[in-house]
Amino acid sequence: MAIGLDRLRESQPWTARDLRRWIVPLSIVTVVALRLPFLTHAPTPDEAGFLLVGGQWHPGGSSLYGNYWVDRPPLLIGIFQIASALGGLPALRLIGCLAAAATVGGSSLAAGLVAGKRASRWAAIAAAALCTTPLLGTVAVNGELLAGPFVVAGIAAAIGALKTDDEGRARLFGIAAGAAAISAMMIKQNFADVFVFGLVATVVAWHRRDIGTARFFRVLSSAIAGAALALFALAVFTLAQGTSLSGVYDAMYPFRFEADRVIAAGGSQYATARLFTMLLAAAASGIVLLFAAAGWGIAAKRLYGAAAWGL
Q1: What is the distance between the alpha carbons of residues 53 and 50, in angstroms, rounded to a whole number?
Q2: What are phi and psi of 57, to 5 degrees?
Q3: Residue partners of 219: CB distance under 8 A and separation at least 6
Q4: C-alpha 118: how far from its chain's center?
Q5: H or E element at residue 1
Q6: Were 47 and a residue from 43, 146, 250, 261 both cysteine, which residue would form a disulfide, CB within 3.0 to 4.6 Å?
Q7: With contact defined as beta carbons under 8 Å apart, do 96 and 35 qualify?
């Protein structure tokens, strides 16, 4: 009789609570499963070009990255170098799967720290959708995708630094946030999200007296230390590869500003067309809806506090 009751219990259908427990891991598995069929799909121009540059990046070359020049940060080229060494395009696409999975998990963690378990589940679903929609480039492994995990990890670490009651953990979270912030920018040069979020959230937390002045300076100094350590490590790696640090800076910012001026001088019709396409993709993919929902949550005070201001 006891065995029969056990089997009966085991055969009971899942409850809504059981399903909710699995939403985050299922979102992570789904985002990987939807990207796996594209492992051997033809490379995009950026993927092919960066694999070419990364695969031959070596000391003593004739240009910025080995024998080639490209206006991108060194950590991005380093990831493509690893992908090239591991087999090229399939390895790169697998790295993209890992980046998408980490972005979903990190988004869920950050949202949970801000607004609880329900927000954590919805964030996982939203991140999975945005990491797989063709409107935002399902196939391509690019700087935006690869920087994503560092952005969400940095934001989660910044929130943790403000929320924890343990001073040692606050320092560690601050260091992690700073390191993640630099790493994101060394993959995609304009991804300063963690810096903006962390600074605003920390200042607001101090202003609202959620944290004291000592914690305020401790978190900021830890974040600066983390950023400096990450930047130093990346600089050593870049120099070891025979690449000039001043050359990298020039490629990441001054060159791109000059390129913008040249494009603007040639007429605005191309930029206008691209802007229209980007806005259409943002609306169709649901990004605009997410912005509106977050704005409403803050305005209606369903989201409040330092993290909401940072958001």
Answers
A1: 5
A2: -65, 120
A3: 161, 162, 170, 171, 173, 174, 202, 211
A4: 21
A5: none
A6: 43
A7: yes
Quote the pTM value: 0.89
Q: For residues 6 and 13, what is the distance between their CA atoms, to the nearest angstrom?
A: 14
What is the token pair recorded at 219? Answer: 């978190």
- Inter-residue contact 156 to 196 (CB < 8 Å): no
Tens of pLDDT along 223-277? 999 999 999 999 999 999 999 999 999 999 999 899 888 877 877 777 788 889 9
3-state secondary structure of 65: strand
In 78-192, which ranges are E strands? none
Amino acid at 260: D
pLDDT, one tens digit per residue, over 72-121 is: 999 999 999 999 999 999 999 999 999 999 999 999 999 999 888 999 99
Cβ atoms of residues 248 and 64 within 8 Å: yes
Cα dihedral 206, 227, 127, 108 in deg (nearest 10): -50
Half-sphere exposure of 255 (CA within 13 A, CB side): 13
What is the spatial distance between Cα 198 and Cα 220, in angstroms, rounded to a whole number? 9
Structure tokens at 115: 């607004």
Is residue 92 a contact partner of residue 83, using CB atoms and an 8 Å limit?
yes
**Number of helices followed by number of strands (H, E) in the chain:** 16, 0
Has residue 302 got a pLDDT over 80? Answer: no
Number of C-beta neighbours around residue 217 at 10 A: 12
**Residues 6+ positions from 60 with CB-CB distance below 8 Å:** 242
How far, in Å, CA of 145 to CA of 103, rounded? 8
- pLDDT value at 8 more than 50: no
Return the HEC string of 195-225: HHHHHHHHHHHHHCCCCCHHHHHHHHHHHHH
pLDDT for the residue numbered 235: 97
Q: In the Cβ-directed half-sphere of 199, how many Cα atoms lie within 13 Å?
A: 7
